[in-house]
Amino acid sequence: MKNSTAGDTAHNDANVPRPKPAGKFTNNTNDHNPKEMVDELSFRLRDMPDINVPQLDDDIDSPTEDDAPQRDSFTSRMLFGPLGASTSTQMSPLTRSPWASYVERSATDSSDANANYTGLVASLVREEGNIYSLAAKGDMLYTGSDSKNIRVWKNHKEFSWFKSNSGLVKAIVIAGEKIFTGHQDGKIRVWKVSAKNPSVHKRVGTLPAFTSIVEKSMKPKNYKEVRGSHKNIWIKHFDAISSLSFSEDQSLLYSGSWDTTVKVWSVPDFKCLESIAAHEDAINSVVAGLDGLVFSGSADGTVKAWRREYEGKRTKHFFIDNMLKQECAVTSLIINKAGTVVYCGSSDGFLYFWEREKLLSRAGSLKGHKMAVLCLEAAGDLVFSGSVDTNICVWRREKGGEHKCLCVLSGHTGPVKCLAVEDERGMGSVCRCRWTVYSGSLDKSVKIWSVSTETAEGERPQQPSGSSRAKSSSGQIFSRMRE
Fold this sequence. Notes:
Blueprint (H helix, E strand, L loop, with lengths): L67 H8 L23 E5 L15 E8 L4 E7 L2 E6 L3 E6 L2 E7 L5 E7 L2 E6 L4 E6 L7 E7 L2 H8 L5 E5 L2 E4 L7 E6 L5 E6 L3 E6 L5 E6 L5 E7 L3 E6 L3 E10 L2 E12 L4 E6 L5 E6 L3 E6 L6 E6 L5 E7 L2 E6 L3 E7 L5 E8 L5 E8 L10 E8 L3 E8 H5 L11 E4 L4 E3 L4
Antiparallel strand pairs: 1-2, 2-31, 3-4, 4-5, 5-6, 7-8, 8-9, 9-10, 11-12, 13-14, 14-15, 15-16, 17-18, 18-19, 19-20, 21-22, 22-23, 23-24, 24-32, 25-26, 26-27, 27-28, 29-30, 30-31, 32-33
């Protein structure tokens, strides 16, 4: 597989053409073949033809502070029944939301008295379209899809929404009361929760700002060659934004794009401080942490490390090391909450990790998936990996540095594209070992799971069919639970 050339045109979502809008994902059935769904993947691989993205219609208009009575009509809607049941007769005619919510396990079953439960709690299902991004904060969940709307959920119920001018919301991150969304059009949009009404989100900025574009466009030195003979202002992404990440103090925002660059933004004033020509092919993930280090992963098969330094009032990033170089695309990166381990997801189904104590030399690899790993999330000493094989593996890093596969969450019928995790202690639970996991999939659903580390070592939740063992690169075999 050769690398993309400078003469290539726009990056695409997968290594095969995208399906048409009326494709196989429009029906809510359970007979999806994960291998057939690879054409819907949203990470960038190499050597792909140009495919035009179909124009998608809006879901609904964004709410305003005068819309509270109308919002209440669907906020209180909770549908009970088997996943996939028709909702046309249960939805209010006043409700135009394309989402439905299904409770799989009651609040009583998931209470502190049953804190050892690990499994599915609820499902949020769209009528059509796929889920590309998630972000959670407390009991609030933000979902981004291939529509122009970002949905807001509270306690498994649809709470609000806000609309951008571009579809395909590919990344969502939260800093305080501000929400940053990365889009297919190469722009970052900034939203803030209204002080008068928490269900209202107002757009407070776009990165780069129009005034910055006008200012930079006045000087020829600000134009850089981006593809072939085309030139673009260096503060602008000219292709889809695939990843967003904050610095440790949340003063800087990093954006990775399919245009092969990482851009550094000042969060207080929304100005672009630097553009890093990081890779030879599309960037699928960027994460910041570890004492000013930044890591980028690309479809060119590499993971690169960069160090942030300050030159007076300016911020400058310097290349340190090429941590990984392989034929398979790097699809995702995450740093654990302690800032001691960097994890990488690969399109060959492996997870690789590096430890700070070992000067970021590769510490090992984990094999728990049969197909490409698309997303990673970390919480406490746990790491969650979502894959094209429709499963979510839950890994725990032991004191000696070894990793154990605690359980596998199985329930999606399509590739798992994005993950978000919240500690249930921050959601009113007294349990110290229970987590709420949100997973977005190309089966048009978001699933909400409860994960207890006590269950993982005791009762053992259900497993998907296939191999019952996971193996590390060192040859140590981690026992899994059988069905």
